[in-house]
Amino acid sequence: MTEPGTEPDPGTDPGTDVIRVEGIGKSFGPVNALTDVNLHVRRGEVLGLIGDNGAGKSTLIKILTGYHQPDAGHILFEGEPVTLKSVVHARSLGIETVFQDLAMVDDLPVYLNLHLNRELTHRPLPFLRRREMKRLAREALDSIGIAIPSVTAEVGMLSGGQRQAIAVARSVYSKAKLLLLDEPLAAMGAKESAVILRLLQELKQRGDIAIILIAHNYGQVIDVCDRVNLVQHGEITFDRRAADTSVAELLELVNAEYRLGDGR
Ligand SMILES: Nc1ncnc2c1ncn2[C@@H]1O[C@H](COP(=O)(O)OP(=O)(O)OP(=O)(O)O)[C@@H](O)[C@H]1O
């Protein structure tokens, strides 16, 4: 259901959508997590997904990563209908997720973390091509403007913001077409959040990747996102260009449901 005055972005051109979902529904036993969800994101666009705890944001992201299968609706990836069978399948198409635990190995250096499960070897010999991996890691980090003192530094020695930035760089390095970020700024200080927000701006300017970002700080969402979707009780109730909304309006929409005695 879309509230009057909050109709989806009229400038939508389905031809440039990296992903488009239509009529998605998902239940867990008696819990209706998602109902008739429509969402799309274009190349070079950052879509902010906001909503209260339990609204359904993570469930939607997990459907896009291939982790959950929807009960209803369909998904178009680069214009083609697709069934995302698993996380591995989604990744093979170019759908990458930066998880909250970041899946990093703390006692390995930055360059090996960047190549995790994609290590380069001197085939047929199983020796690692360390020099090449260091060079590529440096190139990948430089290309998206991440300042890491050394690619040979152990990841465990870096700040939360730097680790998060490396996780994003790893997804980009693997040629992601759609990057999903589930609360990358949660539990981060202002300085560390700024590193990630700058990185997202950088990726946006490159224009070759679509990004969906779940975040609770509406100010940051409006700063970095092109468009904002609000999820309420498993439905997208608001779809607006970030430039055409405000923190006050988003807060008002979220708080209104409590005033109506509808908060769960
Ligand atoms: N695996 C599961 N089994 C049963 N119920 C689930 C499962 N995953 C999510 N839910 C339920 O689905 C609804 C949506 O949850 P979801 O995690 O998607 O919300 P969210 O918007 O991401 O919340 P938060 O901001 O707190 O992370 C909630 O009622 C939740 O309890």
UniProtKB/TrEMBL annotation:
Domain ABC transporter: 19-258
InterPro entries to which the protein is assigned, alphabetical: AAA+_ATPase, ABC_carbohydrate_import_ATPase, ABC_transporter-like_ATP-bd, ABC_transporter-like_CS, P-loop_NTPase
Gene Ontology molecular function terms on file: ATP binding; ATP hydrolysis activity
Entry keyword set: ATP-binding, Nucleotide-binding
UniProt signal peptide: none
PANTHER family: CARBOHYDRATE TRANSPORT ATP-BINDING PROTEIN MG119-RELATED, SUGAR ABC TRANSPORTER ATP-BINDING PROTEIN
Protein name as it appears in the record: Sugar ABC transporter ATP-binding protein
Gene source species: Amycolatopsis balhimycina DSM 5908
